[in-house]
Amino acid sequence: MIMNLQSTTTLHNGVKMPRVGLGVYKMEEGNDVKDAVLSAIDIGYRSIDTASFYKNEEGVGQALQETSVSREDLFVTTKVWNDEQGYEETLAAFDRSLEKLGLEYLDLYLIHWPVPGKYKDTWRALEKLYKEGKVKAIGVSNFMEHHLEDLLKDAEVKPVVNQVELHPRLAQPELRSFCEERGIQMEAWSPLARGKYFDAPILEELAEKYEKTPAQIILRWDVQHGIITIPKSTKAHRQKENADLFDFELTADEMKQIDDLNTGERNGPHPDEFDYNG
Question: Which PROSITE patterns would you find in this protein's record (predicted)?
Answer without folding.
Answer: ALDOKETO_REDUCTASE_1 (PS00798), ALDOKETO_REDUCTASE_2 (PS00062), ALDOKETO_REDUCTASE_3 (PS00063)
